[in-house]
Amino acid sequence: MCGKVSQIHTVSYSIIALQEMNLNFKYPPIFWAASRLMSESGSTEFLSEDLELLQDDEEHEIEQSSVNYFKMSSAIGKIKDYGVDVKPPHINDSSFTFKPVVEENTIYFGLKGLSRIGNKLIDEIIEKRPYNSLNDFLSKVRVNKIQATMLIKSGAFDSFGDRKQMLYEYCDLEADKKNRLTLQNAQRLIDLGFVPEELNHYTNLYKINKHLKKFFRFGDIIVPDDNIWQYVNNYDFDEIEQEETGELFFKVSQWEKYYKKEMEHIKSWIKKNHDELLERVNQAAVDELIEKYGKGDIAQWEMEALSTYNTYHELETPEYAEWLDKLNAVNFHDIPEEPEIEWQHENGAKKFRLYTIAGTAIGRDKMKKIAGILTPDGFLKCKVYRSTFNKFDRQIKLDGETEKSWFSKGTRLLLTGYRDGDNFRLKTYKSTSRQMIYKIDSPGLLINKRLGED
Q1: pLDDT reported for residue 48
Q2: Residue 254: CB partners within 8 Å, gap ≥ 6?
Q3: What CA–CA distance (Å, rounded) separates 113 from 255?
Q4: Which residues on adjacent β-strands are paired with residue 440?
Q5: Residue 14: CB partners within 8 Å, gap ≥ 6?
Q6: Closest CA to 360 of 309, 394, 403, 396
Q7: Buried/exposed code over 280-301 (b: 16+ C-beta within 10 A; e: otherwise)
Q8: In whole angstroms, what separates CA 183 from the centre of its chain?
Q9: What torsion do the CA atoms of 430, 433, 437, 441 make, to the nearest 10 degrees?
């Protein structure tokens, strides 16, 4: 019986060995690296979606499946440690999942890994290739602002030019620009603060008019309350009538006649400064889109779009690096793999030497109480005590404010503990001057308490 079992194992492993030899002989190593990356990131299921797109027969329905960013970031970190180059997604070459490119000896990030990019959009992107510019892409594929900016931020269009410039050009293209300005645009000019102070008398009248018509118009008359009368009385409008009850009112037609005459001052100012104002208003529209969709630097864009960093880690920038150095933060891989014992009691209790590291949270495993942390020198799993994990993982809502889990994607953290193999264990002692976990708000600013804590 033992001989039979041994023979069965021998044949099975021999077949696997022959298959691996065949793969190694016929295919470059980048295929093996991509295969490992797909397997460890949990994205092998997306291979079937890639194969679906190769079929010409009938239309297919692609089931929407989610990406495990915790596993994906871990897998990318490991493969990069072996010197394998993983590039951002490429709008013309990327598939659903990671794709090996033999000519460049690299792996392209899969479109499925992008935030806010669904399967149907990926299907359309692949179907309508190739693209020779961002504008060419926009003319072929229907995308909303969030999808377009996510693709730009991820680096998908890097072959067409500078990423920041393309995002600016996209915002310039999509901004709500005006061809001409009239009195109907007065509210916009007021909101932007473009109307000079000497016209405040008329801008206030504009606001009063909107308020009156919205809250105090009843058919063909306007009946202000005592509060609004104090503002109306600042103007020389004298077409005021009185009910038998003593209540004051005025006719809509009389008010509109007066209002139209007074607004000539605003109309005249707009006409006189039209071209300059039009340019400023349109630029403001562009700036508002950039403020909404283009905040942060390239590293922050990549974290938002890809849940990882491709260009550089934001904590590697000079302003962060210098400050973290003053805090004695070290690279995880510079810490000894085995915990260093600083003191040991005769009963076996040990005190380990502690280190401080900094990184960006990428997600968490709630069951195992593990946080995924992407540091400048790679991905690691941070093991956290249950009580500490629960404290910092919960979402807090208080007085209209919301604070997400400190382990949610993109949160920068300063952590104290010790290394245990490939993991980092949070730990402090009574004599430790630093707590286990801080949120990094900006260079020089640490947050040590959750929302609502004293």
Answers
A1: 55
A2: 239
A3: 59
A4: 446
A5: none
A6: 309
A7: ebbebbbeebbeebbeeebbbb
A8: 38
A9: 160
Structural contact between residues 412 and 315, judged by C-beta atoms closer than 8 angstroms: yes
Structure confidence by residue, pLDDT tens digits, 170-218: 999 999 999 999 999 999 999 999 999 999 999 999 999 999 999 999 9
pLDDT at 47: 60
Q: Contact, 222 vs 248, CB < 8 A?
A: no
> Per residue in 28-53, is it b (16+ CB within 10 Å) or e — as a string?
eebeebbbbbbebbbbeebeebbeee
What domains are there in the chain, each with its CATH number? 2-145 (1.10.150), 183-272 (no CATH), 313-447 (2.40.50.140)
Query: What are the phi and psi torsion angles at 99 (to 5°)?
Result: -130, 120
Alpha carbon distance 215, 223 (integer Å): 9
| Three-state DSSP state, 173 | helix
- Eight-class DSSP state of 416: E
Residue (of 201, 195, 202) closest to 181 by Cα position: 195
- Enclosing H/E stretch for 270: helix 264-272
- The answer, yes or no, to whether the previous bond of 130 is cis (omega within 30 of 0) is yes
Length of the chain: 454
Helical (H) or strand (E) element with 50: helix 47-53
